[in-house]
Known about the structure:
Elements (H helix, E strand, L loop, with lengths): L1 H19 L6 H23 L3 H21 L6 H5 L9 H16 L10 H32 L4 H17 L5 H17 L14 H6 L1
Helix pairs in contact: 1-2, 1-6, 2-5, 3-8, 5-6, 5-7
Amino acid sequence: MGFAVVLFFLIPTLASRWIAAYFQDQPVIDAIAEGLLRFGIFLLYLWGISFIPDIRRVFGYHGAEHKTINAYEAGDALTVANVQKHSVQHTRCGTSFLLYVLVLSIILFAPLTFAAVEPLWLALILRLISRLLLVPVVAGIAYEIIRFSAAHDKNPLMRLLIAPGLLLQKMTTRQPDDGMVECAIRALEPVLAADGVVRLAEPQVQPTAGAESLA
């Protein structure tokens, strides 16, 4: 938790304040710089951890999760072969959610630069506290955007809104192997059972009358 606060809040806040000083402490420059720095750090973080073998496997399981949900929502039988036909991208992915959080934070944090507050250390503390306090608000708005856009994903405007998140998912998902897909299917089954949904099993081929007589 402390690492995340330093990486995604403290560093962008300090760096943006330094950048804004070269532009007569313009609040707009300060806010945009902070948001872009936070987004850049996020992308570098995803890129960096993608070289870790265990994380690459996690991204594979992430892709398997998306494939399984896509297969279920398409009404397909939850078998490995069927699930593997589907995309590793999903409109309600947490990666898309984080992207919305980052973009919304630029807008909501913009008025809270505290550029006029002295001394500087107090302004920085107020900025950091205000951002941490607003995280639930930003997350709540991002969640509602995810829900609304996914429910209207056939709308051309909504598809434009969804597209950046789907593009970012290329960094956080990988094509899974069959074992990962089987694991994702098994993980979904108790969730469906808790909701009273019967698993869509592979259709059974019924023997013909001629085959029965030969048996």
